[in-house]
Specification:
The structure holds 2 protein chains of 2 kinds. Chain A has strands at 3-5, 10-14, 19-21, 24-26, 31-38, 45-49, 60-61, 72-74, 83-91, 100-101, 105-110. By secondary structure, chain A is an all-beta fold. In chain A, the strands form 3 sheets. In chain A, strands 2, 5, 6, 9, 10 and 11 form a 6-stranded mixed β-sheet that branches. Chain B is built from no helices and 11 strands. In chain B, strands 2, 4, 5, 6, 9, 10 and 11 form a 7-stranded mixed β-sheet that branches. Chain B is globular and about 40 Å long. The chains are: A mainly beta, B mainly beta.
């Protein structure tokens, strides 16, 4: 079975503060990890995936297989980062495998 | 380039009825996935379609069924509706090439189903 846990339902920070949204997973094979984001009144959209090793909108995430984590980080939060963030997991290279989402973390960046 | 469109946006049904939700894929995409999102929770995988065949299914009963058409559009059918089926149903399309890409999803806005 595969599982994704996002321990914080809500994370509130001030503008300019560092942000870390936590994601832990459980999966027996080789995982592929994603972060999806939903801004207010917009659709759910892909933010980044671990195999791309990109920084998107200043966000980065590193897959730590030892700790089975894929935390999302940004050094300086902006008000426009306020959104719902979902961590998601599938099996690497298995196109038909399900994408399992965590319960989501709402990030609020205060001015 | 057109995005993913879903219809209807909202609908109300009663217990025991049947519902069909529709989805048009983003242009150029060949794979469609359906998710159920209950209030306050993350999306839950229902199934995925590729080449008009079911290509992966989550923990949903057989009364949840689907179709993918040659133009890559898709339908989700739910029979014998139950109160717990009330949720936002999300369709997402993707471009599968070989064994990768299927989970790089472009989501629609969703169909909100209320079962009374």
């Amino acid at each position: 079975a595969q599982r994704v846990t996002q321990p914080e339902k809500l994370l509130s920070v001030f503008k300019g503060a560092p942000v870390e949204l936590k994601c832990n997973y459980s999966y027996s094979g080789s995982p592929e990890l994603f972060w999806y984001v939903q801004y207010s009144r917009q659709r759910l959209q892909l933010l980044l995936r671990h195999i791309s090793r990109e920084s998107i909108k200043g966000f980065t995430a590193d897959l730590n297989k030892g700790e089975t984590s894929f935390h999302l980080k940004k050094p300086f939060a902006q008000e426009e980062d306020s959104a719902m963030y979902y961590c998601a997991l599938s099996g690497l290279g298995n196109a038909g495998n399900m994408l399992t989402f965590g319960g989501g973390t709402r990030l609020m960046v205060k001015p | 380039e057109t995005g993913v469109t879903q219809s209807p946006t909202h609908l109300i049904k009663t217990r025991g009825q049947q519902v069909t939700l529709r989805c048009s894929s983003q242009s150029g995409h060949n794979t469609v996935s359906w998710y159920q999102q209950a209030l306050g929770q993350g999306p839950q995988f229902i199934f995925q379609y590729y080449r008009e065949e079911e290509n992966g299914r989550g923990n949903f009963p057989p009364r949840f069924s689907g179709l993918q058409f040659p133009n890559y559009s898709s339908e989700l059918n739910v029979n014998a509706l139950e109160l717990d089926d009330s949720a936002l149903y999300l369709c997402a399309s993707s471009l599968r090439t070989g064994s990768s890409g299927a989970n790089v999803l472009t989501f629609g806005a969703g169909s909100r189903l209320t079962v009374l």
